[in-house]
Design a protein that fits this description.
about 550 residues, alpha/beta, Urease, subunit C, domain 1, Diaminopimelate Epimerase, Chain A, domain 1, 8-stranded parallel β-sheet, 6-stranded mixed β-sheet, 18 helices, about 20% strand, binds zinc ion
Length: about 550
């Protein structure tokens, strides 16, 4: 991390100077925790006069944090922490701002998102159609001539309220007249402007016979809307980019996510992902410039084959990395075995037997399974298999994880708890419409899981089906509100539980509970200074919280003054 440390230290003076101007608040009176473990060491940095939500086991609060090297030296009252300062200690006055542990996302398609971030517009939380089109136009003007502008999911028309008609080709042409524009809504459908249709060679004579539709207007011309597999007619023409552009794109994604408060992500592969997608991460890590902690799973996207025999061989030949703290591969999923991803879900007896062989191999070789499951019928079949494995080799220490958890029954929750499993819950159903929810679309049973005593973490499943912003996830499970402000989630949880789920619980899921997830002496100094107080901001404004400063391993990696 040498080159990066140098860079950050030179930036730090600027940041500290700016912070004094930025945080002119009065000290707040909170109960301080005793500063444990200070020992003889002298802190490199002290952050004082804040409201530090440590998210330790007691959800205790403190006023100040002392950092030595990459780790927290002590947390406690301002007086106790300031007493530790030496002549070289840099002190930052937080002006009464709230500090939370760095947010951890337990399930993101991160490498895929970062790859196209540079030409990608995020519409997360944008509640007006005009504002969305303006953001797209603005990005187009900032990109080199001819470069595509794309929106790859994470939003839906329902967030525009009553103005929820599909985009027209004329509307997209008016927003971006001079270059290809492609706007995708989830995995469902996409919308192309005339330049994108032209670049893809699509005209009135184009026919599409696959699963989906190339929508035409009354005159038989393409309307710009592409449903289902017809999206490929356009997306296959997205030009590739140089390694330098991909690296810059990756760093832009990291910076934007630090601004949301994220310091750690768990990447779980995804459709279309190849080993090449991880090259920018690897290059950043090798250059000491990877400021996001990235854990990523082993899966079929890493070139190991997808038959049961090939998977068992791969799990037996490799060892999960349970000690790396910056860029480490561990865990098996979220696609653990292709037949388990069939839609609609059905599986033969032979395939279930194969799945059991894979689960045994994972258990015997110390791999954490991270299984995608949206419906209880699949969860029950998965639990049958896991209980059979557990009868032979206990799963208690492996923290096997069920991802998404939509539609899980109380009986399945109880069975998963008995196996010591972890629930990786996600926010993708935040984009469901009230009608879809009323029609039976499932959401994760957050409160049932929480009140069952289950170990659950909160994540996004971003970026195609959800926003990567952790405060969008937290705001949703606390308030129950969709981006358009409609109440669609009944199983809400207290804000303390939601923050714990997005920090300390996810550290457990990642096997890094001794290093990450809370602001405590001895742990890595990953924390976020927020623009407003997490504990007192109204529930419907939690989604709008932003980082003013993000610290990873004691280094200021992002600041609102950048
Ligand atoms: Zn999934």
């Amino acid at each position: 991390m040498k080159s990066h440390r140098k860079l950050s230290l030179s930036c730090l003076a600027v940041v500290v100077a700016a912070l004094y101007g930025l945080f002119p608040g009065a000290a707040i009176d909170v109960a301080a925790q005793p500063a444990d473990g200070a020992g003889e060491a002298v802190p490199d940095r002290i952050f004082t006069n804040g409201r530090v939500l440590t998210v330790d086991a007691d959800f205790s609060e403190a006023e100040a944090i002392a950092v030595a090297g990459e780790r927290v030296l002590a947390v406690g009252s301002a007086a106790d922490i300031l007493a530790l300062a030496g002549p070289g200690t840099i002190t930052t006055d937080l002006g009464g701002r709230t500090v939370v542990p760095g947010l951890i996302d337990n399930h993101m398609h991160f490498a895929r998102a970062a790859r196209d971030w540079y030409r990608h517009v995020r519409l997360d939380g944008v509640t007006s159609r005009g504002a969305a089109l303006a953001l797209i136009a603005e990005r187009a003007r900032a990109l080199p001539e001819g470069e595509w502008v794309i929106v790859l999911g994470g939003w839906n028309f329902a967030q525009f309220g009553a103005d929820d008609a599909p985009f027209t080709r004329a509307e997209l042409d008016a927003s971006v007249p001079d270059r290809p524009l492609y706007v995708q809504e989830g995995y469902r459908r996409g919308f192309a402007n005339s330049a994108a249709l032209g670049a893809a060679g699509i005209d009135a004579g184009t026919r599409f016979d696959g699963r989906g539709a190339l929508v035409t207007d009354d005159a038989g011309n393409p309307s710009g809307e592409l449903v289902g597999a017809a999206m490929n007619l356009v997306t296959q023409h997205l030009p590739d980019a140089s390694a330098g552009v991909r690296d810059a794109s990756f760093q832009a994604a990291v910076a934007d996510m630090h601004g949301m408060g994220l310091t750690t992500v768990y990447d779980v592969g995804g459709n279309g992902v190849t080993p090449e997608f991880y090259a920018p991460l690897r290059r950043a890590h090798e250059a000491g410039e990877l400021t996001m902690r990235v854990f990523y799973s082993l899966n079929g996207q890493h070139g190991i084959g997808s038959s049961a025999d090939e998977i068992v061989a791969a799990l037996s030949a490799r060892t999960p990395d349970l000690t790396g703290l910056r860029f480490a591969q561990f865990g098996w999923g979220e696609t653990t075995y292709p037949p388990m991803r069939a839609q609609p879900w059905r599986i033969s007896a032979q395939e279930l037997a194969n799945y059991e062989a894979i689960a045994f191999a994972a258990a015997e070789n110390g791999w954490q399974m991270h299984e995608h499951a949206l419906r209880d019928v699949k969860v029950r079949a998965m639990l049958d298999v896991f209980e059979a494995v557990d009868a032979v080799r206990s799963l208690a220490d492996l923290r096997w994880t069920i991802a998404h958890t939509n539609g899980m029954s109380q009986e399945s929750i109880d069975r998963a708890n008995a196996l010591g499993m972890v629930f990786a819950t996600h926010s993708s159903s935040r984009l469901a419409t009230p009608e879809a929810i009323a029609g039976g679309a499932t959401t994760p049973p957050f409160r049932s899981i929480h009140e069952s005593g289950g170990i659950w973490g909160l994540g996004s499943d971003a970026t195609t089906v959800a926003s990567p912003n952790p405060f969008h996830n937290i705001g949703w499970v606390v308030s129950g509100l969709s981006p358009a402000g409609e109440r669609i989630l009944s199983e809400t949880v207290p804000r303390e539980a939601a923050l714990t789920a997005h920090t300390r619980r996810n550290a457990w899921l990642l096997f890094r509970e001794n290093d990450l997830g809370s602001v405590e002496a001895g742990k890595l100094a990953d924390f976020v200074v927020l623009d407003r107080d997490y504990m007192s901001v109204p529930e419907d404004e939690i989604k709008d919280l932003r980082a003013l400063m993000t610290v990873v391993g004691g280094e200021v990696v992002w600041s609102a003054t950048n």
